[in-house]
Write a structure and sequence with these properties.
0% strand; mainly alpha
């Protein structure tokens, strides 16, 4: 059930969207364009060049599943196991030559787990406001220092390890600031809720929209019109794509039963 839900909700839409991109490249440039797009190691040889998030999300779900299947009654050990496996992924991704965007934000996955774990701590319940203020100050300090270190390293040192470490630290503490601030500043309306429901489909299809509107078949010169049309077409196609995938899931579920 754990993997069936994620395969239906994450992997199958990504696979279907990849097919749409491949078809577009074949129509506009043939096999040569498809090969040139896919044959990039930094992107992980993906048809959707910015879809690394989908694969890392599935990988981290697998890491979570493995860790807490082994340490189901020991939360601390389960999180530590996740940390070790995520760190292993970062090292392997670096030496495999993948782009840094594949692993820069990896520790944010652990941050969410730790913050949720803190919800059950007795200290967290007794001093909620104090806990949040301390964490927010520490997170903001680490975030600023990390980016400061990255800027100084880029100007004076040029060490890749320092740059990666700074980005990992900054991305790990950034969710903490968001988690805490959203408790005080809530921006909720129907439009944001609507976009939230199709956010994954927007992520998958937006690159295809801006490629189509400035291609050999159709080229919109005006930047303003181009941006507005990309937004409009992305939202419309995201709605249609989501409904299509839900219909496919219902049919496949019915046939499977």
């Amino acid at each position: 059930m754990f993997w069936q839900k994620r395969l239906h909700n994450v992997f199958l839409p990504w696979l279907a969207a990849s097919g749409l991109y491949a078809l577009w490249y074949l129509i506009t440039g043939g096999w040569q364009k498809l090969y040139e797009t896919v044959h990039v190691r930094e992107n992980g040889y993906l048809v959707i060049t910015n879809s690394w998030f989908v694969l890392t999300l599935l990988l981290f779900c697998l890491i979570f599943f493995i860790s807490f299947r082994k340490f189901c009654d020991q939360i601390g050990r389960g999180i530590f196991c996740c940390f070790c496996l995520v760190t292993l992924f970062i090292v392997l991704a670096y030496f495999a030559g993948l782009g840094a965007w594949w692993y820069y934000s990896s520790y944010a996955f652990l941050t969410g787990m730790l913050y949720q774990w803190s919800e059950n701590c007795s200290l967290r319940k007794r001093s909620d406001k104090l806990f949040q203020r301390v964490v927010l100050i520490l997170a903001a300090t680490i975030f600023v220092l990390s980016y400061g270190a990255r800027i100084l390293n880029a100007r004076y040192v040029g060490n890749a390890a320092i740059s990666i470490a700074a980005c990992l630290c900054a991305s790990a503490v950034f969710p903490l600031m968001v988690f805490i601030l959203q408790r005080k500043i809530m921006v909720v309306n129907r439009f944001w809720i609507f976009l939230g429901k199709i956010s994954f489909e927007i992520y998958l299809l937006h690159e295809l929209a801006y490629q189509m509107l400035r291609s050999s078949l159709l080229y919109i010169k005006s930047d303003t019109v181009y941006v507005l049309m990309v937004i409009f077409i992305t939202i419309i196609t995201a709605i249609m794509f989501q409904r299509l995938m839900k219909g496919f899931q219902k049919v496949s579920g019915f046939l499977g039963s």
